[in-house]
Write a structure and sequence with these properties.
GO molecular function: Delta14-sterol reductase activity
Number of helices: 17
Helix content: 55-70%
Membrane topology: Multi-pass membrane protein
Structural class: mainly alpha
Number of domains: 2
Main location: membrane
Oligomer: single chain
Shape: globular
Family: Belongs to the ERG4/ERG24 family.
Radius of gyration: 23 Å
Keywords: Lipid biosynthesis, Lipid metabolism, Membrane, Oxidoreductase, Steroid biosynthesis, Steroid metabolism, Sterol biosynthesis, Sterol metabolism, Transmembrane, Transmembrane helix
Length: about 375
Amino acid sequence: MPPKNESVLNPKTTKYEFLGPIGAFQMITVLPILVCVLHLSCQFDGNPSRELIIYLSNINNVKNLFTLSNILSLFDLTAFFAYIIYLAYLIVLYYLIPGHWVEGTQLRDGTKLKYKVNGFYSMTLTIILIIIILNTKGYEPFLFIDEHFIGLITSSIIVAFFLSLYVYLDSFQEGKLLAIGGNSGNAIYDFMIGRELNPRIGSFDIKYFVELRPGLIGWTIINIAMAIKQYHELGYVTIGMFLIVIFQGWYCFDAVYNEPAVLTTMDITTDGFGWMLSFGNLTWVAFLYALQARYLALHPVHLSQFQIVSIICLQAVGYSIFRGANNEKNFFRNNPEDPKIKRMSILSISIHLVEYIESITDNHSVIVMTKQI
């Protein structure tokens, strides 16, 4: 039987990561600024923008950047509503599009949660809708993303913060299964790292939903919008931009196509859902990963035939390694005793493993922290 005692089921976190509460506070405050700065510095006159460099060379201007009026100027109400509509659209697709249900790995309390798998269909439908809009309305509607880009980033940061706050406060309700690494008792650290393991609203798993859909689908949409921005400026799309859209879109499609595999990853099985995963998926993935496409939209790069062939070959080799390794890891996690992999050599590394064993002497389950060397 699984452990019933609260102190056994949800033990206190005894070891900090990311430099503990100080590091957590720095991440919460610095990383959102970093994302905004990286995009604000990417302008037509350079990356970083020469005008921005000259402006920041004056210490008084640097101080003025953090005035309340300047901070509030980053908020764009139109962009905020657009971002909320985007998230609502994805949630509606999650519920309306048919999908099959799969079980996750066994949790510490002995249960297995079920997850609806239909992310690939959500991504496919989104691309179809983009094609329909392009054919019926033209490309102008997609210029909205570039025109309101900082506002969209700010909106994602706001949503990530309040979502993190909600799941943190909700984790104190009775009966919650907490993450081993997110129950330190320090509010800042637990808020950042994630306190509850699988926060849910009914059958809707917040962490599972946020893990792939808003970030990867958003990243793909932004890349397409940046290609459209380049077309708007140049009258054509460069090969470099085309490769970015295709290869990064391929990666995103691959992820949602293999959506069940995410259920065996550390993000789902081990990490709590807090600010780190919320901000990481809503803001970092969608907007920072799209920086390459945004740069090319403003600074087109013309590739030689040799460069094009080299990039395609590198992508093919890299993807084959990436997909092969991930398939193997997922297969091992689901079937560690399968004859196909049982004889494979294993590289032993120093990691913390959480195991459940049934005590022979007192007939109750306990948590044993072991280290594999």
